[in-house]
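Input.
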Amino acid sequence: MEIKAVAFDVNGTLVQILTDDGMDQIFRSAAHFLSYQGIDLRREQVRDLYFQIMKEQQRTSTERYPEFDAVDIWRRIIDGHQTDFTRSLPAAKLGQMPLFLAEMSRGISRHRLNLFPHVREVLDVLRERYSLAVVTDAQSAYARSELHKVGLLDYFDPIIVSGDHGYRKPDRRLFQLALDGMKVAAENAMYVGNDMHCDIFGAREVGMTTVMFDSQQGTKVHLDCVPDYTITDFRDLLKILDCPAPSGSPVIAQPPGGRLAE
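Output.
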């Protein structure tokens, strides 16, 4: 294979992340914040509204794999419960409140955000030889901020975020956007992900070579889908691509469709 570009999933592949999107503190904090904007809702009401609107977004979408929009959810909560005091606030402040609430909620929900071992050293090797991109299911409000937080934002171009488009993986259009951005044909591109349905099936459908990073997250079985490669150590990606390993980092070869040996 002549690989010219490599694209990656983020959460569960490059990044270990743990969130609790239903935790009580999110909606308590949001209710307290909204009370200072003239909107009096109990935290239980905020929670119910949030998930009701999310389900409505997904139900009314025409997409096969619909993505929700967290910023729009908060905007609709604010718009639906404005008071005269709320409407008297500066327009710039009102305009920023939905994004602020989306970012605040994500920050409160997050328990863990760090790279998997050896990710950065492998990307440092790959960026000298290949175009690198990201295709991730995430919200526009925080996907790039989280990449920045773990120091990876500048490694990738383009960064394809499902929240920017209204649909999620395995929709092949997301993978095609990455291919178009890297100006490479699917047969010359590789995709690395941790979910057999969203990542491996989706990338395979568009014609990319697939690598399953078998982390503790993600769906491991989908129909008869089989990745071209399976790895458990990120450094093994360098052997697949015949790249030099970082100093002191042995890698072991693997046949297509098989699992790299420990």
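The CA atoms of residues 76 and 253 lie 52 Å apart.
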